[in-house]
Design brief:
By secondary structure, the protein is an alpha+beta fold. The chain has three domains: 105 residues, 2-Layer Sandwich (Phosphorylase Kinase, domain 1), CATH 3.30.200; 182 residues, Transferase(Phosphotransferase), domain 1 (Orthogonal Bundle), CATH 1.10.510; 57 residues, no CATH class. Helix content is 29%, strand content 15%. The chain is built from 13 helices and 16 strands. The strands form five sheets. It has a six-stranded antiparallel sheet, covered by helices on one side. A three-stranded antiparallel sheet has the order 7-9-10. A hairpin with a 6-residue loop joins strand 14 and strand 15. The longest helix has 24 residues. The protein binds adenosine-5'-diphosphate and magnesium ion.
Length: 471
């Protein structure tokens, strides 16, 4: 029921294995995974030989229009929001009596599978958390909250000798803010959202009935990061305070503080994935700098070893939070995907232009509206450019907002300086200031990095009159 907590339970492992079947031009070669919503197959396109991952909706959901609509929305979001740390969707269709999504097949393992081998050292755990945050930044920039960040929904693969983490499974995603250019086949709030996800990773406010937003995703990344570091999941956040549970970790203190900031209650949590990512990057720069200085002192190594130098400074692995390479796009996949459906009219590709995605006519004709036996049209392929933080190869925000010394602008413009504190360009905040009184943000006392940034600006430039600034 809407608003009520509900956890999904996985169907039995032999549930719906359609290996060997053919859906249109796709041959289902082998099942590579399954979840509560669907099974995933490695599938070969008979026309081209290209390999895809086909996510096939479990048949028991076929008669549930909401499940089918959400499946379609999952495809639309995955097709339109591209980032190296997400998995691109190329097609969505109803063929051979099955609803399915075609996407890139990732040859790797889930974080859950990796954790079966035990906890992951902090350098690597942090790099995984960073990469998932980068994927989240891309989603959040387009107004979409993922709402099921968990080790089950994180794939790890090796690309050019480096590990890359990919966040996937947008089946529970929610369009929180309608961003320009996002084409969806259903109104974001028209479908009641069940509150379900992966136990131990769901943010406490969602367990209490909130629909979940960007900060709920931040909690989930924090819970995942904790699990990667310890090999154990957090207890139910309604039963135990996650911040207290995560107090003792083998993590440099500055990063530990960032992790605790992700597990805080909603209002005290990091206000955006971009700022959390920026804070981690800054922390890692500091740690690398300290290590370099330590190396310069290596002639004194015997003496240093007598001192209690924390183990994480002595570790050999350099901690990184690097931009991954762009997703390599096999020509066959990219070229084939829009023409998947042999029958009927083909929808032209969506092109990402400077202002966003231009929608072609016909997008509405997807999914359950298709009468039985008629093949619906494919999801149009957008230009597969990464859309967000890593676009220019450099993070948009490499430091937490409070470090931006906007106040040095000349001539000083208070509104512009405060705008630089916003967690992301589409965020809406209302700042109420009055001489000699504490600033209020959206009617509340300032908290987190946003609060610190706003207070920094106002400390440097105390207001002379009361005013409310809407940004
Ligand atoms: N693109 C992919 N490439 C390879 N394996 C995948 C891919 N997508 C999903 N999987 C596998 O299938 C499993 C279930 O996929 P998921 O999308 O999470 O389904 P559900 O929505 O039912 O939870 C994943 O945990 C993973 O093992
Ligand atoms: Mg899943």
């Amino acid at each position: 029921m809407f608003g009520e907590p509900e956890h999904f339970t996985l169907p039995p492992i032999d549930h719906h294995d359609f290996t060997g079947d053919t859906l249109g031009r796709y041959h289902l070669d082998r099942r590579v995974g399954y979840g509560g919503v669907a099974s995933i197959y490695a599938a070969t396109c008979k026309n081209t030989g290209a390999i895809f991952a086909l996510k096939v909706l479990h048949p028991e959901h076929d008669s549930n229009p909401i499940a089918v609509q959400r499946f379609r929305q999952e495809a639309q979001l995955g097709a339109q929001i591209r980032h190296p740390n997400l998995i691109p969707v190329y097609d969505h269709s109803w063929l051979g009596g099955r609803h399915f999504i075609a996407m890139e097949l990732v040859e790797g393992k889930t974080l859950t599978e990796e954790l079966a081998r035990g906890p992951i050292p902090w350098e690597r755990s942090t790099a995984i958390a960073c990469q998932l945050l980068a994927g989240l930044v891309a989603l959040h920039e387009r107004g979409v909250a993922h709402r099921d960040v968990s080790p089950n929904n994180c794939m790890l693969e090796e690309v050019d000798g480096r590990e890359r983490a990919r966040l996937f499974d947008l089946s529970h995603a929610r369009v929180v803010e309608r961003a320009d250019g996002l084409v969806l086949g259903l109104a974001p709030e028209s479908v009641p959202m069940l509150i379900y996800g992966t136990p131990h990773f769901i943010a406490p406010e969602r367990l209490r009935g909130s629909r979940g937003d960007f900060r709920s995703d931040i909690f989930e990344v924090g819970a995942l990061w904790y699990t990667a570091l310890t090999g154990a999941a957090l207890p139910d956040p309604l039963g135990a305070d996650p911040v207290s549970v995560a107090q003792r970790l083998d993590l440099p203190p500055i990063l530990h503080a960032v992790l605790l900031g992700a597990l805080e209650i909603h209002t005290r949590r990091h206000h955006s994935a971009a700022s959390m990512l920026g804070t981690i990057q800054k922390a890692l720069e500091d740690i690398r700098g300290r290590r370099q200085r330590m190396r310069r002192l290596k002639t004194f190594a015997p003496l240093l070893s007598l001192l209690a130098i924390p183990v994480w400074f002595a570790a050999r692995n350099e901690p990184t939070c690097q931009a991954p390479p762009a997703i390599p796009k096999p020509a066959s996949q990219g070229a084939e995907a829009p023409s998947v459906i042999e029958a009927r009219s083909i929808v032209g590709p969506i092109g990402i232009e400077a202002s966003g995605i231009v929608a072609p006519a016909g997008v509405k004709a997807l999914g359950i509206e298709a009468p039985s036996g008629v093949e619906p049209e494919p999801i149009p392929l957008p230009t597969p450019e990464p859309t967000s933080v890593w676009l220019a190869g450099e993070p948009v925000q490499t430091e937490p907002p409070r470090r931006e010394r906007a106040v040095s602008n000349s001539p000083f413009n208070l509104r512009r300086a405060l705008a630089k504190c916003k967690p992301h360009p589409t965020a809406r905040i209302e700042i109420t200031i009055s001489p000699g009184e504490r600033v209020q943000i959206d009617g509340e006392r300032p908290t987190g990095e946003l609060g610190r940034c706003v207070e920094d600006v106002l400390t440097a430039h105390p207001p002379h009159q009361a005013e409310t600034i809407k940004l």
